[in-house]
Amino acid sequence: xxxxxxxxxxxxxxxxxxxxxxxxxxxxxxxxxxxxxxxxxxxxxxxxxxxxxxxxxxxxxxxxxxxxxxxxxxxxxxxxxxxxxxxxxxxxxxxxxxxxxxxxxxxxxxxxxxxxxxxxxxxxxxxxxxxxxxxxxxxxxxxxxxxxxxxxxxxxxxxxxxxxxxxxxxxxxxxxxxxxxxxxxxxxxxxxxxxxxxxxxxxxxxxxxxxxxxxxxxxxxxxxxxxxxxxxxxxxxxxxxxxxxxxxxxxxxxxxxxxxxxxxxx
Length: 266
Prior knowledge:
- The chain is α+β, with helices and mostly antiparallel strands.
- The protein has helices at residues 3-22, 40-56, 87-91, 165-175, 185-193, 207-219, 247-264; strands at 29-31, 37-39, 61-64, 77-85, 98-105, 108-116, 121-126, 131-133, 136-137, 150-153, 178-180, 199-203, 223-225, 238-242.
- It is globular, with a radius of gyration of 18 Å.
- It starts with a helix and ends with a helix.
- The relative contact order is 0.14.
């Protein structure tokens, strides 16, 4: 295991232990928007992650969801940290959430770790070294058609009335085995990487939501672009991840929806 990945794994487990210990306790919740919540557990998890990363890599930049990271001007390496991806699930006692830590080198993912402390599932990937669930190497699904695929998506917690995703949700529901919405983009991407889902799409995700997960998909043999089919980089406005086999079919469905929406707005 390379040194970057080793530290990321140790860090994710430390943060996961904080979340696991606090999962069954009453939550202290505050709001960043109308429905966008943050808990004290988010902040404690992030503080632990940032402290450990800074101690090992003081010259690296850190972009963390709750804002406790710090940019290093001109840094080659940048950590993208979601200390609790799935905060709403966590706050409601639904055990679908994760710590997500991704290291990006000159804009491209280099290392990724996603850890669900409730299931104790640890997903890891390093560029050129494959993707793993625990000690077992994972691969994307062999399914060839969208009609026999299980896919996933998510919806934003801000500007919900302006989200166009309900149209995509409806269309993909009709064209697939089903659409799941579990509330953690990091875990959804890992489910694509491990063959549980054939595809995943979403709008408006931040770099800390995807930096680890998209590397997982790529290293497991999948494909990641934006919904226009262009190369995806963490923080782009849309993401489409798949097993590669249904990618073009999913992209064409998305293109049809966009075309109809554009025609209706004229």
